[in-house]
Amino acid sequence: MGRSGRVTLTDVAKASGVSRATVSFVLNDDPRQTISAATRERVMEAAQDLGYVAHGIARALREGSSRIVVLNVDWGMEGNFSRSYVRGLDEELAEHDHILLVRHGHAIPEATQKVLDTIAPRAVLRLGEAYMHGHEPTEDDWENGFAANAALQLGYLADHGHTRIALAMPDHDFPLTEARLGFSQEAARRRGLPPLERIVVPRPREAGAAAIEAFLRDHPDVTALAAFDDDIAQRSLAALRDLGLRVPEDMAVIGFDETEYGSLSTPALTTVHIDAEVLGRIAARNALGIGTGELAPVAGRIVARASV
User: Fold this and answer.
1) Can you tell me the distance from the alpha carbon of 56 to that of 66, in angstroms, rounded to the nearest whole number?
2) Helix (H, G, I), strand (E, B), or coil: what is residue 70?
3) CA–CA separation, 8 vs 23, rounded Å?
4) Which of 12, 112, 166, 261 is the most buried (most CB within 10 A)?
C-alpha cells in the first residue's frame, strides 16, 4: 500500500500484473480502450481484494465535477414524502456510482454556493423547488402529482358527505404552503364544493383548542378538517377531544402524508399516504442525464381509519 496507508492504483497494478494506466482504464470503464475480458476481471478482483476506493477529489478534477449530488430539504419539509423521496434518489444514484448528500434547512444561495465551491457536486437539487416558484399544475399533476394528492384528501371528505370543509394549517409558513392552499381550493372548485375555510391550529395544546373553539363558533356549518399534514391533524384531534367534541360524529379529521403515529391516536387517523420513491429515482436520472424509461409517479392513496 502507499505511504498514506491508502490503496492506490499502483498497488492494484502490482497485484494484477498490469500497468497503472491499464488499471485506470478498467476502473474508470474508459470506452476508448480495448482491454480483454480476462484482464478486466483480473484488475477488478485485485481492486476488490485490496479494498481499493477511488480518490474522489482526483476524479472530480479529472471529470470537472465530483460524483456527489446534493439535495436541499427546506426546514419543515421533513416527513414520509421526503423520506421516501430521499430513499429513491439515494438508491438510484448509488446504482450509477454516485453519492447523495442531503442538507436540511440550508437552501439559501450563500450556503449552497459554499457547497458548490467545496465539493463541485454533479448536481444540486431542492425538494419541491418547482412548486416554490409558482409552478402551475398540468393535468398530469392532477392525475398523480402534488395537486392530485390535495384533491384526493378533499375528495374523500366529499365522498363521505362533507361539503363545508376547513383547511387546518400550521402556525408558520412552510415553503409549499401557498401551493398547497391553491391546489386545495382548485380541487374544491372542481368538486363543486364551496370555497374552503382556513384555520390555523397552533401549539401548545391549549392554544390549539382555543383556536378551534373560536373558529367553530364563527363557522358552525363546518363538519370536516382537512389537515396540512398528520402533525396538524393530531393537534386537531387533541383540541377537539379537549373541547368535548366527538370525532368523526361532530367533526371529521383527515391527515396528509401518513406518519406511523396516526394509527396510534384515538380515534385512529384517516390520512393520505404518498410514496415518492419513484420521484426520487426520476430526479436522480434527470440529474445524471439518463432517460427515465418506464418510471412513472405513483398515485397517492387514502389510509382509511376511524376519524372520517
Assistant:
1) 7
2) strand
3) 10
4) 12
**Short-list 148, 145, 175, 149, CA closest to 72:** 175
CA distance 42 to 23: 10
Which residues have CB under 8 Å from 115's CB, separation 6+? 70, 101, 103, 121, 124
Measured distance CA(249)–CA(31) in Å, rounded: 67
The tens digit of pLDDT for each residue in 73-129 reads 988 788 899 999 999 999 999 999 899 999 887 666 777 777 777 788 888 898 988
> What count of residues does the chain have?
308
Q: How large is the angle between the packed helices 146-159 and 177-190, nearest 10 degrees?
A: 50
Over 273-286, what HEC string results?
A: ECCCHHHHHHHHHH
Nearest to 84 by CA among 295, 269, 273: 273
DSSP one-letter code for 143 = H
Start-to-end Cα distance in the chain: 65
In the numeric block, which cell numbers belong to residue 124? 444540486
For 197-223, give the secondary structure using H, E and C: EEEECCCCHHHHHHHHHHHHHHCCCCC
Q: Residues 269, 252: contact at Cβ < 8 Å? A: no
Half-sphere exposure of 53 (CA within 13 A, CB side): 4
At position 7, the amino acid (one-letter code) is V
Report the DSSP pairing between strands 271-273 and 301-303.
antiparallel
Q: Rounded CA gap, 181 and 66, in Å?
A: 39
